[in-house]
Write a structure and sequence with these properties.
CATH topology of one domain: Immunoglobulin-like
CATH architecture of one domain: Sandwich
CATH class of one domain: Mainly Beta
Shape: rod-shaped
Oligomer: single chain
Strand content: over 45%
Number of helices: 3
Structural class: alpha+beta
Helix content: 25-40%
Amino acid sequence: MPSLGCWGLPAALLTLLCCSGPAEMTFEVDIWPEKLAVETVGSRRVNCSTSCAQPDSGGLETFLTKQLVDQQPQWQQYLVSNISQDTVLICYFSCAGMTRSKSLNVSVYQPPKQVTLKLQPTRVAMGTAFTAECRVAAVKPLSSLTLSLFRGQETLHNQTFAGAAAAAQEVTTIFNSTAQEGGGPLTFSCQAELDLRSQGGDIIRSVSEPQILQVYEPVQDKQMVIIVTVVSVLLFLFVTSILLCFVISQHQRHRHRGSYGVLAAWQRLPRAFRMQSA
């Protein structure tokens, strides 16, 4: 027991000496949110905090418009406005002569508000190719965009734009497909999906107005051509027969009128001349 008492005091002093350094030397700085996606010319609240109990100073570094909304010794809240382009926000605190900071990447996006779909042609025979043109108004960033073509609830095609420029621009994509089913109209639509989860945002979707594709079977079309042809021939024969009847009747009428004219002229001749001729 005495030995323990002898060693207890030195151990306690050693512990105090080792841990008596300023706790603030190990302070941390945090920023919330850790990632931020903002629609063009938007505003967001940003919190800066520190583990230092009594920081000397702190703040938010940015070239954007900022307003201090609230603060306490260990945290500050700012309203950052007019965010029009990708940028970096930096929170910093000074504690016991040391300064530490933490950055926040801000991504500016432009949602796909207008999506249009155009089918060419709008009526095709079964097994015939057609094109679906999907057009999306200015959207950003393209690397997070996915365009999907739907037939009813079935997904026919997906297209991504990984590696595309980040600048907002209009996107036009053409999908080639084949009409596989007949017996009625088919409904198509185009969906634009902007996935901002990796940048601290959400998934934004926009769908075009549905477009109808009329699909018919070629056999039915041939039958219709045959029917139209037969009707046309019968109509031609009918009209031709009427014309022939008219021409024949007119010809007979002229012949009949010609015979009566010769007889009338003979009767008008003088009797003597008729006898002489006889």
